[in-house]
Amino acid sequence: MIEFDHVSVTFAGQAAPVLRDVDLRIPEGELCLVIGRTGSGKTTLLRTINGLVPHFSGGTLSGRVVVDGRDTREHRPRDLAEIVGFVGQDPLSGFVTDTVEDELAYGMESLGLPADVMRKRVEETLDLLGLAELRQRPLAALSGGQQQRVAIGSVLTTHPRVLVLDEPTSALDPLAAEEVLATLQRLVHDLGMTVVLAEHRLERVVQYADRVVLVPGGGGTVVDGPPAEVLAGSPIAPPVVELGRIAGWRPLPLSVRDARRRAAPLKEELDGLSAPDHGCSRPGEVVAGTSDLVAGYPRLPVLKGVSATLSRGEVVALMGRNGVGKSTFLKTLVGLATPDSGRVEVGGQVPADLKPAQLLRQVGLVPQVPGDLLYESTVARECAQADKDGGVAPGTTADLFERLSPGVPGEQHPRDLSEGQRLTLALAIVLAADPPLLLLDEPTRGLDYTAKHRLVEILRDLAAGGHAVMLATHDVELVAEVATRVVVLADGEVVADGTVTDVVVSSPAFAPQVAKILAPESWLTPTDVAVALAGVTTVSRP
Amino acid sequence: MRPQNLITFPRMLHPGAWWLWALGLAAAASRTQNPIPLLLILAVTAFVVAARKSDAPWARSYGAFLKLALVVIGIRIVFQALLSSGSQGPTVLFTLPEIPVPGSTGIKLGGEVTLEAVLQAFYEGLQLATILVCVGAANSLGSARRLLRSVPGALYEVGIAVVIALTFAPQLVTDAARVRAAHRLRGQSGGLRAMKRLAMPVLEGALDRSVELAAAMDSRGYGRTTAATPAARRLTGLLTLTGLLGLCVGVYGLLSATSAGWLGLPMLVAGSLLCAAGIYFGGRRIGRTTYRPDPWALPEWLVAGSGLTAAAAMFVNVRADPAELVLASITAVPPVPLVATFGILVAMLPAIVAPPLPRPAAQTTRSSEMEVAA
Known about the structure:
Shape of chain B: globular
Low-confidence stretches of chain B: 362-374
Strand order of the largest sheet of chain B: 1-2
Strand order of the largest sheet of chain A: 6-7-8-3-9-10
Radius of gyration of chain A: 24 Å
Oligomer: heterodimer
Distance between the termini of chain A: 58 Å
Number of strands of chain B: 2
Strand content of chain B: under 5%
Largest interface: A-B, 76 and 53 residues
């Protein structure tokens, strides 16, 4: 269906090619997963499929990409519209119209299809994707999962043979992500579509893939093959594969179900060993707390009486569905939202009453889009500005950033940093004034596994150094790695507040993969298992 | 009979019909300063809006335009009182302290305020206010955005650009609020420098989104069916542009009392013909189709016709008996222009002949959810 023939892509002004000599055949009806670190060229690879690279992006493409017999050299993206459906990273920014029905029809209108065909296809697509009840709704009022499904539907109406998706589930909570993935599987199984998608959250998608393409980045050779084979040698792997490597399973399991069926011997081996306690052994003084906090919109409280405390040395994960009030809770802690009733205290003071310059020394928040914090033209000037804002010695922020993310030249523009580097720069800026409380809103959005490991190390160090950390997140694997306590919000109230083991292991939505495999024992991460097993071997051998 | 032709079949009326109706009333208002027909027009718009407005966000714009209209009248009266030259009438209401203006500009600040001057200002302000309220009524009854869906193929590119701009503007405001909040987190308070810092990330975000949108539109086939030679494109552009120019001149000629006769109707007809030709030729080169176009059926004809009747009646009345509409004495009790009044009352019909709106049965939960999103 899709053929890459010695494809290399070089963008203007860059010495090295992004992709070098890619040779790839994707047969019809396969679900093909493209993996790789951020900035490795995954998006570029996807965009060559419908000709956006090089027709839209510029740059030089050598070799040949042929999709369903059409060469992208002679066909512009618009000429491939009924062959390749392309869904970009942020569905909302790709919407042209403003209601669901019009958006589904837009592509067909551009192709000039007759009115009766359009009418029928829109109805079919509404049913296929379960969008019938949303047909009249404004697109901006939909939830993230619904928007993603509308974006998929809007390219399906032209009846393409290939569907290309760039990180379709990165911004979604676990349940909305499953909704989208179930839709994709249905397209592959029932309609025989060829689906190519890039995704960082391997634990969500790898079990559905027929083929994995690893883009190593830096112009290295692109590897492709069956998922288990490619992942065996891949530097990035989901927890289930890591556990498989530790236990020495061949071939590697890809889904929780595979792994569970083979886990009996491992469970026996682990019998008698106790899973490490992820709780904070000795929490320090309380740095922030809320009691009976009510906040939200007029006549529409989002938080309905939340009481919680945060102490030094803790890493608290705030979990719950999209829109449940996680961000609102963080905002009240930094005074961006004022409570309707109840108390909020940070360092013994009410955050909304503090001046920005005073607040800086009490609490730091890294927003969902870390780039919002940045506005200078170079990293060095950004750091200098943070020193000035925080009233600390010049060079403090730059040193901090160097420690968190070594080797970034100071004259680089913040926009050219990778997703992970931008996050650490925002972290360094926020930490410059050394606030005892650090808040992070969805820190792993768009981060690859390597960047995530780095973030876990940084957060552990901060907690060990006496900071209180709270992160609002959907990423259960991150929670399993780093959190000492989990607070779950639902319908504006705290429904669970306890150690990770207590809260997460028994939850169907929030349990990490290792916990699902080794249930009912409360192992959370592959590392825990590896450490425990290593302890056994050293003990039994002497 | 197709259900679309029934005035009892609940549906959304074509927004174009509402705009024609409102523009008809506005045209009628533009020809008179007699407060009786003007107030009548205001009452008619209020009545129809109350009867047929939806609960969509844009439906609230009538109130906003009404407030704006009051401000217009107020400003007009205050300025007239402050800057009147004293020669406008014998009936002095009160005397303000006078500030001499140097030089022989003929302008003076303060001084005597006459009833004639204030009334004149009120009537003139009322006329402008009525036209404004007509536009407000059109806005709240027919969504401008939905109207853009019906633009002819030749103007499609312009239409889509406006739709995108309408979507981007609120997004820009949200972005700005988000970035401002983020800057507070860095310990910075407001000020002029803050504006500069705000602009960078917000504009970058907008630019990124535009590029994303362009890529999405390209990969969904935008502009694919356009197969026009440059010459054909230029011809279409020329025809449409000349036509629009003719239309403008024609409308001006028709609405202004002083212009020559040939400037009015003939120019309007010529302009319309040129425009139609341009849109026809332009539309032929565009191979795109429209999904579920808004129907134009009997109720649309009735609504648009009632508005145009009001305008026509006013024009006839002005020609036949100008004294009823152009007031001879500003302080006399204004006469009731019979033909014009009849026309304006006809424009009240849409309160009945426009189909009722469908009851939002499944939408009650939706609107509350939209509030959450907002």
